[in-house]
TrEMBL record:
<keyword id="KW-0560">Oxidoreductase</keyword>
<dbReference type="Pfam" id="PF13738">
    <property type="entry name" value="Pyr_redox_3"/>
</dbReference>
<dbReference type="InterPro" id="IPR024000">
    <property type="entry name" value="CHP04046_FMN-dependent"/>
</dbReference>
<dbReference type="InterPro" id="IPR036188">
    <property type="entry name" value="FAD/NAD-bd_sf"/>
</dbReference>
<dbReference type="InterPro" id="IPR050982">
    <property type="entry name" value="Auxin_biosynth/cation_transpt"/>
</dbReference>
<protein>
    <submittedName>
        <fullName>MSMEG_0569 family flavin-dependent oxidoreductase</fullName>
    </submittedName>
</protein>
Amino acid sequence: MSVSLPHHSVLIVGGGQAGLSLSHHLQAAGVDHLVLEKHKAMHTWQTQRWDSFTLVPPNWQCALPGHAYAGPAPNGFMKKGEIVEYLDGFLAKLKPPLREGVAVESVRPLPGGGFQVRSSDGEYTADQVVVASGGYHQPIVPRLAERLPASVTQLHSADYRNPDQLPAGKVLVVGAGQSGAQIAEDLHLAGREVVLAVGEAPRCARFYRGRDVVDWLADMGYYDMPVTAHPLREGVRDNTNHYVAGRDGGRDIDLRRFALEGMQLYGPLQALDGDTLRFAPTLAAALDSADRTYNGINASIDAHIAKLGLDAPPPSVYTPLWAPEGERETLSLSASGITSVIWCIGFAPDFRWLAAPVFDGRGHPVHERGVTGVPGLYFLGLPWLHTWGSGRFSGVDRDAAFIAERILDRRAGPSAGVATAATEACPA
């Protein structure tokens, strides 16, 4: 028996900045579509950011379609509440066809073309589907965490809000990427004792030669560079973000300075043997590597200034303020007074609900600028989908416009539509 299901030309999975940016372009083109969001629109900005969170790129890079930043501080860094207000303004202006609190449980291509979508609120069919749910789905917490004493409070960075959340005592922050470094700084500024397990994250200057480094890199065309032109090609998608701060008007994050001020730095956490935490003996190498990146970015700015003959303050080279006397590889959990651990080692993608042959061996989607090998199936909002800004406010509009064009191209083609597939019987 045939069953008629609600049908849309385009179904967008995810109501974050990516999915809603695409909705903007589809509305402008008069394309019927529906956005399904598991939680609330833009929910991660309210639920997965700590209280003192600020943007790292300057405000002028907030350029959602039809909703560029128009506040008084284009070169400043919005705080968490200001970011939420900015996004609420975008949502109110857009008025998208959005259903919140609806989880997509499965998407599969139909034999006659188009897709069947099962959700927590029923089934749909769609001519085309755009996955705009991001790539940060499952907080990564190592199995080692299971062996920590119950007396030790554990949080993932997604759940950290402020130092008062944690019991008295020393805090172990595992991971020194963008989130880990900023959370360690947040705790440090609050007077908490911090042990920081440092990995291979790079760092960059906040300001150099009279301007924000982001401004220089924008002028140099870095943010327009497609992934296909990057020296690492698709490998850049695996890179850890540079750590730098937008807090208090913006500044460098220098782990060496933190060490001089009492923060204890170790290499990456590797194991727990009874009461003993074991760390890799790579702290010095990690700090040196981060500084090489820092100085390398500044050197590229020097070359840009020299090439164009620009008037700017003189160049400089960062020299280390502190260096470890030796590698500390062990730490007694109890003797050190550690009462809390914050895991800042990222997120893993989880696309198990998408039953389409578009993934590599690590579960990452294979695509070219968001277009997959399955006709009518796209990704949007992933890091380095096309450029550095693809997963950010700065570049998602360009990507959304591109996907909207591909959607329109397909609608105009001979394979558009799933009129037959939309009424196929589905197994109970």
